[in-house]
């Protein structure tokens, strides 16, 4: 079941869209706190976004830009501001389609179905993980933190994925090494230390000091 997030401040429209799209077997939520749009996007992890332009606090263009920093999720703009300038702006900012209000529910259903099919027919779902403002993008192995984008090596990515999946828990070195090299054969224990040290240096350069904590004799954790 594909998940859709509606970012629309007109509650009647948001509820109407949710009710209609749920009938088509989509899982749907809508934003209620327009100061925390990105946080809800990360937590809900939708496969498609319906996004209005005129919103409280920040415009839909702002939120589209923020989402595009961490995700390639399909975005359909829905707005009564349907002049050519706004349509061009919406697509330029990273939107995939534009639908003018008032719209027919059958039209938006057709657009959603087409975009979902086009986006996910030959690939897995786009996923992100978040911890204390650090966003790990599982689709392209990048880390985002305070407008900084960090490219990760394969081992960097795997280490962070393991630790962020188990945030707040100490993960043993043996478990990390097995996941990292996918082998039961002997790997020099120092190899993991070297990998973690390199990753820490990369994180520190991005302003993330002490993101990974060492539990001496046991392993590592992010808390």
UniProtKB/TrEMBL annotation:
Domain OmpR/PhoB-type: start-end pairs: 126-223
BP-aspect Gene Ontology terms: regulation of DNA-templated transcription
Modification 4-aspartylphosphate, positions: 52
A GO CC annotation given for this chain: protein-DNA complex
Domain Response regulatory: 3-116
Keywords: DNA-binding, Phosphoprotein, Transcription, Transcription regulation
InterPro entries per the UniProt record, alphabetical: CheY-like_superfamily (IPR011006), OmpR/PhoB-type_DNA-bd (IPR001867), Sig_transdc_resp-reg_receiver (IPR001789), WalR-like (IPR039420), WH-like_DNA-bd_sf (IPR036388)
Signal peptide from the UniProt entry: none
Keyword Transcription: yes
DNA-binding region(s), residue ranges: 126-223
Domain of life: Bacteria
GO MF annotations, alphabetized: phosphorelay response regulator activity; transcription cis-regulatory region binding
Record keyword Transcription present: yes
Function: May play the central regulatory role in sporulation. It may be an element of the effector pathway responsible for the activation of sporulation genes in response to nutritional stress. Spo0A may act in concert with spo0H (a sigma factor) to control the expression of some genes that are critical to the sporulation process.
Protein name: Stage 0 sporulation protein A homolog
Lineage of the organism: Bacteria, Bacillati, Bacillota, Clostridia, Eubacteriales
């Amino acid at each position: 079941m594909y998940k859709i997030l509606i970012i629309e401040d007109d509650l009647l429209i948001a509820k109407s869209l949710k009710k209609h799209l749920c009938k088509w077997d989509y899982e749907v939520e809508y934003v209620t706190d327009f100061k925390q749009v990105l946080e809800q996007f990360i937590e809900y992890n939708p496969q498609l976004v319906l996004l209005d332009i005129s919103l409280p606090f920040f415009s839909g263009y702002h939120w589209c830009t923020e989402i595009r920093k961490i995700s390639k999720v399909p975005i359909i703009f829905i707005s009564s501001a349907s002049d050519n300038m706004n349509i061009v702006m919406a697509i330029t900012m990273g939107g995939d389609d534009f639908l003018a209000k008032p719209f027919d529910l059958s039209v938006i259903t057709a657009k959603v179905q087409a975009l979902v099919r086009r986006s996910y027919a030959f690939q897995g779902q786009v996923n992100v993980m978040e911890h204390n403002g650090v966003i790990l993008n599982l689709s392209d192995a990048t880390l985002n933190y305070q407008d900084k984008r960090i490219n990760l090596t394969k081992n960097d990515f795997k280490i962070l994925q393991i630790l962020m999946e188990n945030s707040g828990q100490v993960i043993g070195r043996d478990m990390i090494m097995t996941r990292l090299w996918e082998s039961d054969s002997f790997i020099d224990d120092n190899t993991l230390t070297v990998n973690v040290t390199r990753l820490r240096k990369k994180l520190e350069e991005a302003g993330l000091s002490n993101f990974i904590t060492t539990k001496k004799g046991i392993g590592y954790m992010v808390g």
